[in-house]
Amino acid sequence: MVDTYVEPLAVAAHDIDRYAVVGNPIAHSKSPFIHTAFAKQTQQNISYERVLAPLDGFEATIRSLMQQGFKGVNVTVPFKFEAYALCDHHTEQAKLAGAVNTIKFTEHGIWGDNTDGDGLIADITHNLNTPIKGKRVLLLGAGGAAEGVFQPLLAQHPAKLVVANRTLDKAEKMVSKSFDAAIKSVACTFEDLKNQQFDIVINATSAGLSDMALPIPSSVFAENCLAYDMMYGRETPFMVQARASGAQVADGLGMLIEQAAEAFSGWRGVRPETKSVMEMVGAL
Ligand code: NDP
Q1: Please, where in the chain does CATH 3.40.50.720 lie?
Q2: Model confidence pLDDT, tens digit, residues 254-277
Q3: CA–CA separation, 222 and 100 (whole Å)
Q4: What contacts 176, CB < 8 A, 6 or more positions away?
């Protein structure tokens, strides 16, 4: 189940702090490479592994890693809500999201954080140089990743934030937690997107994992639109559609690196620099 990736830095095995990313599927994850690069850069003695958890065995997997002495884990699709439920303590970001992507094992229990929002905002506003303030933003999806970025997107003061999801009530539940009544946030289905245009369209669904297209009209991409797919490592049908509609297209590799830097910083107390790691993995 554990796929060890990391070449330990030149120290005895017992000196190495073990971390992992847990998900299903997990083979595509670039997190081991990224955290290894951070560790080298900041001289931290850690190893970082990929762990495939059975769909009905997330909690058992986490408890087993804890017993094996792991110091922390990243959590990815589809376990972020289960991770929230499992944690004894939550950071403010995790509470706002109701979802956890970063876990730290401590003698006082399991701590849950959510760094997805910080990662996405840093990538869009800093790396892609696209301010969110005043923009019409469409968020596709209402799963763990979308929950993690919804409140941080609102905090950027877009003109409006529409959440469209296949299962409407999940989008409605998310929008009902909006903290800022001044920003128009609306939940809808994909079909409701007809005749609507957006400056930033963010795909936070996992449809791309199985190469599935979303039933959204190409008219959602306004002129000079940024189409952002949280997926990375492949051209998804969403990206193909957005490119054909004239949008600027970005994948989620930059977000992955930025959210990983936040997680690493929470675990190790030192924040790695991300630009060189982005160049290494081809996100720039
Ligand atoms: P979840 O399983 O929690 O949520 C999946 C979401 O996708 C739900 O909204 C679901 O809709 C929707 N969905 C799945 N399949 C389809 C489909 N065929 N058509 C339409 N909607 C669909 O996953 P996460 O939220 O954790 O992750 C979502 C994606 O974001 C993944 O691809 C993940 O890899 C990526 N991600 C990338 C990050 C990065 O750093 N770049 C960070 C976090 C996530 P419904 O509610 O109806 O089931």
Answers
A1: 117-252
A2: 999 999 999 999 999 999 999 999
A3: 33
A4: none
pLDDT digits (tens, 9 = 90+) for 130-167: 999 999 999 999 998 999 999 999 999 999 999 999 99
For residue 42, give both structure tokens.
Answer: 């900041």
> Which CATH class for the 117-252 domain?
alpha beta
The tokens describing 183, both together, are: 């920003």
Ligand 1 atom with minimal separation from the 257 CA? 40
Q: Which CATH architecture has domain 2-114?
A: 3-Layer(aba) Sandwich (3.40)
In order of 39, 62, 156, 160, 198, the CA distances from 74 in angstroms are 15, 11, 25, 31, 32
Is 71 a residue of the active site? no
C-beta of 149 in contact with ligand 1 (< 6 A): no
φ/ψ of 99, rounded to 5, equals: -145, 150
Minimum CA distance residue for ligand 1 atom 34: 231
Q: Ligand 1 center to residue 208 CA distance, Å? A: 8
